[in-house]
Amino acid sequence: MYTMSRYKDNIRFHEQYGEFHNFLQAVADGGCNEHFHWGRLDWMMAHSYLDTERLTRIALFHDEKGELAGVATYDTEFQDRWYLLHAVSDEALLRQMLEYTVNSENGPVTIKANHTDTMLCGLLEREGFERRGAGSVLQMELSQALPVRLPRGFALNAPDLELNNRQWRLVIHRGFDQEGLPEEWSEAVEKAAKHLEIPEYIKVFAMKGEEYAAHCGMWYRGGETAYIEPVVTLPEHRGKGLGRAVVYEAMGRARERGAKRAIVLSNQEFYFRIGMTKSSEVITWGRDGR
Predict the structure, then answer these.
(1) Segment 101-120, tens digit of pLDDT
(2) Could you tell me the pTM of the whole model?
(3) Rounded CA gap, 35 and 270, in Å?
(4) Residue among 44, 52, 32, 34 nearest 75 (CA)
């Protein structure tokens, strides 16, 4: 039997965050948890869209030695998906995590599970969940340097560039095809966003003068795997190769720090065109009610 505790106080960063982060770091290099890298947690916790009122629904499961063995979590603001992440393949743990997740929802339940997690996928199927779609974790081996080419008039930022936060927000806002200007952040979001200034979050920009025209974020803190989040290009600068350039440059900077591969959660054709291949499949399992 595992002991369950909830993420407390609807606070983004505290000692449980550190425990959760270290847990994901330990299982980041492939296998059944690779679809929820620690970089994804950091991006989620610092994001302005994070539904902080749901943070206490994240559940941490500890073994008899007090070590974190599993986590049931959601992602950002989206209420249509749960992730059951685990360090040990123990059906008793998975059953306990699944029971908690089902009891946390009053209606339909959706769970994302890696296809390599045969124990969890089998349990979901036996418990009446149906396969309702699939996504992908794509990867690229970083065994050699990648060519970075930019059109005339563009340059890449130096690693030690002092960021223009307004330009950074703008390229992400408009790069995701949102209209107008980014809304002003609350004091709480502004404070949380300071976490994105950590050196383990590699930030590469294709710049035209002072304008940030394209951006790739790359999360890497030791081990084999770097995680890509996000990749954006301003609409008026698309089709110029800027996306490929910032991704390749970010991969190169992660490689210099020791990364052996880079991953991204996506099925977009762009990533296949730049040479990424499928590492694993993420299945969406759904059940209507209990």
Answers:
(1) 999 888 899 999 999 999 99
(2) 0.93
(3) 19
(4) 44
- Tokens at 201, concatenated: 């979050």
Alpha-carbon distances, residue 28 vs 97, 116, 211, 227 (angstroms): 20, 14, 34, 9
What pLDDT is stored for residue 31 in this prediction? Answer: 85
- pLDDT score recorded for residue 112: 96
Q: Is 49 exposed, middle or buried (0-12, 13-18, 19+ CB in 10 A)?
A: exposed
Beta strands in the chain (DSSP E): 3-6, 59-62, 68-75, 78-86, 109-114, 130-141, 155-156, 201-208, 211-219, 225-233, 261-265, 277-287
Residue 192 bridge partners (DSSP):
none
The sheet carrying 155-156 orders its strands as 3-6, 59-62, 68-75, 78-86, 109-114, 277-287, 130-141, 261-265, 225-233, 211-219, 201-208, 155-156
Per residue, the 3-state secondary structure of 19-30, as one string, reads: HHHHHHHHCCCC
C-alpha to C-alpha distance for 217 and 268, rounded to whole angstroms:
17
